[in-house]
Amino acid sequence: MVSDLREGIALTETTTTTSASDPRARIHLAVDRPDGHSDDHDTVVEFRGVSCYYGAFRAVRDVTLSVPRHEVTAIIGPSGSGKSTLLRAINRMNDLVPTARTEGAVVFDGLDIYAPGVDAVEVRRRVGMVFQKPNPFPKSIYENVAFGPRVNGFRGDLDELVERSLRRAALWDEVKDKLRSSALALSGGQQQRVCIARAIATEPEVVLMDEPCSALDPRATLQIEELMRELSERYTIVIVTHNMQQAARASDMTAFITMDEARAGYLVEVAPTLKMFTNPEDRLTEDYISGRFG
Amino acid sequence: MSVLARAATTPRFEPALMRRRLSGTIFYGACLAAIGITLLAIVILLYDIFTRGLTHLDLNFLTGVPSRIPARAGVAPAFVGSLQLGILLAVIAFPLGVGAAVYLEEYTRASRLNRLLRTNIANLAGVPSIVYGIFGLALFVRALGLGYTLFAAALTLALLILPVVIISTMEAIRAVPASQREAAYALGATRWQVVRGAVLPAAAPGIMTGIILAMARAIGETAPLILIGAVTFVTYLPQPFDGGYTVLPIQVYSWAARFQPAFQEISATAIIVLLALLVLLNVLAIVVRVRLSRHLQW
Description:
The complex is a heterodimer of chains A (294) and B (298).
Chain A: H1 5-10, H2 12-17, H3 23-32, E1 43-54, E2 57-68, E3 72-76, H4 83-88, E4 100-108, E5 111-112, H5 120-126, E6 127-130, H6 141-151, H7 158-168, H8 172-175, H9 188-200, E7 206-210, H10 218-231, E8 236-240, H11 244-250, E9 253-259, E10 265-272, H12 273-278, H13 283-289
Parallel strand pairs in A: 3-8, 3-9, 6-7, 7-8
Antiparallel strand pairs in A: 1-2, 1-4, 4-5, 9-10
Chain B: H1 3-9, H2 17-53, H3 59-63, H4 76-107, H5 112-124, H6 129-143, H7 150-174, H8 178-186, H9 191-219, H10 223-227, H11 248-256, H12 261-292
Helix pairs in contact in B: 2-12, 4-7, 4-9, 4-11, 5-7, 6-7, 7-9, 8-9, 9-12, 11-12
């Protein structure tokens, strides 16, 4: 995992011809597919028996789950069921908690990101994240979007990359005349779209969203949900949400997790969203989505 | 009589509004007196200094050198000495203080050793400045052979203000929301990139304010400098690494200690110069804080 973006781009031609048996090569392969529509239903991220611990406390218990490419996967479940922990296992953000520990494998494009020798820093460039509360840096809009490319040694046309990212985040027209003014001067919804533009500027394959609308008003929420739809053509989106309507409106797949007697979150059911909300398999899911519990 | 009826007839509140209002008034008066006494002391002090010293404040005083004749004396060597001391101090204390604070805040985990370090640094801030003077004399002047130079003085005073710089920097760093660090980490930043790109810019106003105020304190210090060789009578501009030097507080001290009234008057004039320098530093601290934090809000 020593390569940076530059090498990733340079490898576009070569990786398609080299054998994919080397896991290091495979991770390039995935990123280098610009639109990758070839196979919409392959798996990008796969949890294999994942358990997450904070010290002795087990927050997530033995989750096995596949995240399909270029779709929106929603993780729903009651507060404290480990949704965020599960999400943060995908970009190794849990590593930042000193006592945190992950068991099992999170396979990203064929490579277990928890395997020895895998650098969390490189994983995080390829798996972007948007947080619950908009958290732009106290810098200009431009500098916010350029931050990720800069720290990752981007050598191309930065202006162009910033513009493209802002366009994809449906924000360009609103901010193109004030790129140099502070991102904190924007509205909450705009700030969250700056954060989305910032997350996709490192050209990730997966974008994680941790309740991205919980601090926004209904109109801004709708904008973000529409944006998620558009983004899912290029990126794989995994969203944690408390809002079941949001999961129903905006996602293709829904995973329901809840907690057991020991307060460890476990996967109850995962299914296409429509099926999940009309005909859930599990009684627990039905109770939760109908509002009887949680 | 039932329990309910008894409860209804027994008064359960005693409003005593008069007494509560009165105690409020007394407390208000006490606070007013406290600020009044403080202000009065400062006003009397300033009045005394300005009535005695202002008449001597002119260009000759600022550009002149000390003299046996009070009317011809000036503070140029002391003023330049204080400026040089300030610059050297900033150059030494800034990287050391910020570096130590970043290490303690960002690179260590909450261990017992870490807590011990923090407590000790906080305690060091309370050590009398003369103790630093003795230490500076032993280490910088003698052991390291720097001699009685301005550089040795700057090193000593840097040690004196380091605890304050470290503590204020740590507080500024701690005030940066965790969400800012997470944002940077999530973009694939390394720990150093997170510190440099997200934490330090956000903490900059607090860090700068703390350093400038610590420098203001050091520039007003006298006691440790007497011990490490600040000379009271210097008629040339100091060289930082060689030869005798003096600074404004030392000059004030030496003139004030003389019994001729004329010297005490120019001592007051030197105080005015020193005060002006300190006010300048404080204004700078405010300007820096306002400018750097204009875009900071979360």
